[in-house]
Amino acid sequence: MYRKASTIFFNLTDSSLRNRPLFQELDYFYSWEDVKYKASEIFEHIAELKQNQSELEKVLIVSDNTFFVLSSFISCWCLELIPIMPNGLKYENYENILNDKLCILLENSETSAGLPSGISQPLIKLSPRKSNNPLNLDFIKAVKYIADEPSRELAKTIIQMTSGSTGTPKAISRTLDSLYRENYTLYDLILKKIEDVDDLKLISTVPNFHAYGIEFRFLLPILNNICSYNQMIIYQEQLKKFDDTEKYILITSPGFLKRLDSSENKLNIKQTVSAGGKLNERAFQVVRNYFGKPIIDILGSTETGVMAYRITMTSDKYMHPNGSNTFYVLNGNNILMHEGSGRLALESDYIPNEFKLNIPDTKGELHAVFVSEDLIELNSNQNLRVLGRTSRVIKIEDNRVSLDDIEKALLDLDFISECAVVPSYDSARECTVAMLVLSDQGNCFLKNNSKGKLLMHIRKSLHGIIQIALPRKILIVNEIPQTPNGKTDYQRIKESFGNEVPNH
Predict the structure, then answer these.
(1) Is the per-residue pLDDT at 1 higher than 50?
(2) DSSP-based three-state secondary structure for 482
């Protein structure tokens, strides 16, 4: 089995891997040979379009079928085009990158969500299934050309879109060289200590189209020749279809974990990885009851890749730097500190130079770092704890208030199992409002009392803790809205409270 020398084109042209199962849909398998034929079919369609659109530079790939996505990537690279993975199918998530130099490749299937209105770019619709067409000779030449010189493959790029959960979505370009080097560190973190890795299968509850999905659901199994399930798992009921005698890796998010019923039959999951948001106590209860072993909790972003991780069953553990990453705290004077509290600044080889700033440390030495919106506590051993986000800090009556701190205080109440707090306006004064998921105790209280009394009870319980920022309104729901990435969708939550909620 290939490890750190493995790349996509290396595996694609390795005859010993030709018929190795790479993706699975229940009892149906796709091999590297199937990928080659599908990529050749896609290559022909895009090449035909390119003849009439000579300015074509990028291809927006709208699919969450891993077999189709890999085949599409390969065909784009063979045509010297750049594949783009949109973050969901909302038009506003990628309208700023749509132009005359782009076409759209759409998975044409019953499960495909299709495209939003307002799209005028050339569109290619193809089945995500195996291709029976003969191999295109130009495609074979292009594959050989790239495979013969590894540097050609490493220079290929993927454009990913940030989620836009805290701002305007951005297009981030990553080279395969950067993605591969980062992924090789993930082998050491996730797979190295597992026996019989060759027999593992990967299940994912996250989509392919964001940074976490690309590294963990997409590249991790492909580079390590681990068979992965082709479609994303959305509901726990889908897990019942899997063979409980097999061994699995689960790539998931806090949103899925907290919905797991620990009383259901359990699969033989050797390793669980979570990213995309904060793991609350409900999620850690599932970790302890369902998995009975620590999970790998990831901190990262589209711009930085994997920044840090922790292997834990509880929420109080610090995170450690991934690979050769180095952490700093950026203080109020824009000086890098080696410990303390403040904004996270990261020094990493995986970050594109365009996102780095040259900032001095306490000795005046400049460091090229990425400055994150994460607020952290950093100790002298390079271990960190995430405190919140700068975008989640607002001013109320000239006082700085952390919306994340309000959420933590709410979650300490017995009546509440989940919550999300956003800023609002009340009589021209900024305040906060909260969306709540009640615990069994909270629902019992609400059966015998009005929502107004529940709000009064919550405000009374928090009195003296966050007095100035007590939620003025509450909205009780069964589930907190999430983005496709599994993050809390604060924009949708703002919209739920109406026009009085600001968008900053």
Answers:
(1) no
(2) strand
**What digits encode the pLDDT tens for the residues 463-496?**
766 677 788 888 999 999 887 767 788 888 988 8
The mean pLDDT value of the chain amounts to 86
Residue 237 confidence (pLDDT): 87
- Tell me the residue ranges of DSSP E strands in 393-477: 393-396, 399-402, 416-426, 429-438, 471-476
**Rounded to whole angstroms, how far apart are CA atoms 466 and 459?**
9
- % the chain with pLDDT above 70: 89
Among 212, 183, 171, residue whose Cα is nearest residue 301: 212
Using CA atoms, how far apart are residues 433 and 410, in angstroms rounded to an integer? 12
DSSP assignment string, 290-332: II-S-EEEEEEETTTEEEEEEEESSTTPPBEE-TT-EEEEE-T
The tokens for 51 are 């003849």
- Amino acid identity of residue 77, one-letter, is W
> Which CATH superfamily does the domain covering 8-161 fall into?
ANL, N-terminal domain (3.40.50.12780)
Separation between Cα atoms, residue 29 and residue 228, nearest integer Å: 10
Closest to 169 in 3D by CA, of 219, 225, 104, 98 = 98
The kind and range of the H/E element at 146 are: helix 137-148
| The CATH number of domain 324-391, selected from 2.30.38.10, 3.40.50.300, 1.10.3720.10, 2.60.40.10 | 2.30.38.10
63, 225 contact by CB (below 8 A) = no
Angstrom distance (rounded) from CA 207 to CA 232: 6
pLDDT band, very low/low/confident/very high, at 501 (cuts 50, 70, 90):
very low
Helix (H, G, I), strand (E, B), or coil: what is residue 155?
A: coil
Topology classification of domain 397-496: GMP Synthetase; Chain A, domain 3 (3.30.300)
Give the three-class secondary structure for 259.
Answer: coil
Q: Where are the domains of the chain?
A: 8-161, 324-391, 397-496
**Segment 3-59, tens digit of pLDDT:** 445 899 999 999 999 999 999 987 789 999 999 999 999 999 999 999 988 889 999
Read off the tokens for 495: 């919209």
- Cα separation values, 100 from 53, 314, 333, Å: 9, 50, 44
Helical axes 66-78 vs 32-52, angle rounded to 10°: 50
Q: Find the range with the poorest average confidence among 56-70, 394-408, 444-458.
A: 394-408
| Overall pTM > 0.85 | no
Q: Which residue has the higher pLDDT, 170 or 123?
A: 123
